[in-house]
Design brief:
By secondary structure, the protein is of the alpha/beta class. 22% of the residues lie in helices and 28% in strands.
Amino acid sequence: MALVGVLALQGSFNEHIAALRRLGVKGVEIRKPEQLETVASLIIPGGESTTMAKLAEYHNLFPALREFVKMGKPVWGTCAGLIFLANKATGQKIGGQELIGGLDCTVHRNFFGSQIRSFEAELAVPELASKEGGPEVFRGVFIRAPAILDVGPEVQVLADYLVPINEENTGSEKKVIVAVRQRNLLATAFHPELTADTRWHSYFLKMATETGEEASSSIVAVGADLNLDQQPKIDLPIFQ
Ligand SMILES: NC(=O)CC[C@H](N)C(=O)O
């Protein structure tokens, strides 16, 4: 099995490495551009995308990360990692932030509101069940999460979520996209690494095989007017 890299600048990289370990795969912490050459695939964890972007800039990682994506190597972005991979992001801080890009979509940062609007929800993910077995539903942990507002023609939508809109209790709902795949790129707005269900990690590991990246020998893991009933169940300061 090829090595999996996990971008380890900030955020939930340890949790991704632990999830890979549960599958018997070694995740490699990536902090420098040259370390990317040692891995066949990469996980970009959740955390805080502006901070992560500043650290990536400081370590001169952007050119190597863009090259990694362009080479067709499998890359999975969770939450802040999804923002990193998007071609376009809205709701950014003043001055914006640098993105890796490559994923043909527009992502809205902090779509569900502030940290206190974090929530968990059951998501229907037929693709996951058909490839990995188990139930069709996956429990998504959304922590100050982004949502995908639109996708290009090559993007496969893996999961969406119906958001209640709090406009004078009209009962209306808006559908947003929360998981996608575009060839070698996988992105989830939620955090599978914070659950015991390792099917997303195993799905990603299989992408490496499909895209013929088995050459090396291990993996490195390196607001809206909403009315959300669910209350946050986790308080992790690494996510903002
Ligand atoms: N859980 C997360 O990764 C949160 C992402 C964060 N809201 C951001 O914009 O970077």
